[in-house]
Amino acid sequence: MAKKEMTYAESMAQIEKILARFRNEEMDVDSLAAEVKRATELIAGCKSRLRKAEEEVSKILES
């Protein structure tokens, strides 16, 4: 079964949860690296979606 791709909003919500756990010191050292890696992946996905949307809007405005 194919993995469902997260929406931009879902990704941002997960990033915010990770940041909240970090700020509230709810993250232990053992999970810190994994959480940072996950946040980095989510951020990269959000940047990609934003670039794609920007390109699409630019094409629409050019036509």
TrEMBL record:
Keyword Lipid metabolism recorded: no
Record keyword Hydrolase present: yes
Question: Which UniProt keywords are present, listed alphabetically?
Answer: Cytoplasm, Exonuclease, Hydrolase, Nuclease
**Enzyme nomenclature, EC number:** 3.1.11.6
- What residues form the membrane-spanning segments? none
One GO MF term: exodeoxyribonuclease VII activity
Enumerate the InterPro entries for this protein: Exonuc_VII_S, Exonuc_VII_ssu_sf
Q: What class of enzyme is it?
A: hydrolase
Q: Give the family, as the similarity comment puts it.
A: Belongs to the XseB family.
Q: What is this protein called?
A: Exodeoxyribonuclease VII small subunit
Higher taxonomy = Bacteria, Pseudomonadati, Bacteroidota, Bacteroidia, Bacteroidales
The coding gene here is xseB
